[in-house]
UniProtKB/TrEMBL annotation:
It comes from Bactrocera dorsalis (Oriental fruit fly). InterPro entries: LMW_PTPase, Ptyr_pPase, Ptyr_pPase_sf, Tyr_phospatase_low_mol_wt. This is acid phosphatase. The active site is at C10 (nucleophile), R16, D127 (proton donor). It comes from the Eukaryota. Signal peptide: none annotated.
Length: 159
């Protein structure tokens, strides 16, 4: 089985996508899978910056860390990754628009990360950035964790 290459994407690459990157790296280590994982944002707001401090706090509460530095998605990401996993419908639609180039074959499958949760009400991982509490970050963490575990289960032996 060839190692998968996965890119997580949200709007700013400061909360959800770096959280997903860290969670997935943890589970890949647990399952001894040599997959490549990264995250990016659709905007330049956080390029060169560490993830939001609340994201880092939730990761630490769960025994995880991150060394991610924010970056914006690039055209080459559509060729270099097997999966580009969006956090919500807006991210998904923007990624699908960016990927449309009739003259080129894209490698990446663009999907919602939350599609790997069986409960429709939990399939959108809402942006916790403007939340006044840690609750939004903790909720996103739980959704991301379940989605990553289910993604691994669905792809461990199939891709």
């Amino acid at each position: 089985m060839k190692p998968l290459k996965i890119l997580f994407v949200c709007i700013g690459n400061t909360c959800r996508s770096p959280m997903a990157e860290s969670v997935m790296k943890h589970w890949l280590e647990e399952y001894d899978l040599n997959w490549k994982v990264d995250s990016a944002g659709l905007r330049t707001w956080n390029v060169g910056r560490k993830p939001n401090e609340r994201c880092i706090k939730v990761l630490e509460e769960n025994g995880l860390t991150t060394d991610h530095v924010g970056r914006q998605i690039s055209t080459m990401d559509f060729y270099n990754y097997d999966y580009i996993l969006a956090m919500d419908e807006h991210n998904l639609h923007e990624l699908q628009t960016l990927a449309k180039d009739p003259s080129q074959e894209r490698c990446a499958k663009i999907e919602l990360l939350g599609k790997y949760i069986d409960r429709p009400e939990d399939q959108i991982i809402r942006d916790p950035y403007f939340s006044n509490s840690m609750g939004g970050f903790r909720c996103a963490f739980l959704q991301i964790t379940e989605s990553c575990q289910n993604f691994i289960a669905a792809h461990m032996y199939t891709d």
